[in-house]
Amino acid sequence: MVEGQLNKSGLNPDNFRKTLNGKEINLYTLRNSEGNEVSLSNYGGAVVAIMVPDKNGRLANVIQGHDNIDDVINSPEPFLSTLQKENSYSMARTTILQ
Known about the structure:
The protein is mainly beta. The protein has one helix spanning 69-74, and strands at 18-20, 23-25, 27-31, 37-41, 47-53, 59-61.
């Protein structure tokens, strides 16, 4: 992903860049061939967005994540992501190549 480029959830990777205790924190987005995305931070592996088709086939974020790293860090439950009941999603397979 290009610096500052928004992913399908609209998250800006620049809002997740920070140095904390001498370590770089970033946002990473995994995308499969179907266009589904999962965005997570390397700060504890916090999942901040899961973009999958809703019941009408439109991509929707099915968790309530954070919009920036400071909210993740200051959250009482920074690594907890909650599935939103109103969205139904299809299962897809993602292959990570090394």
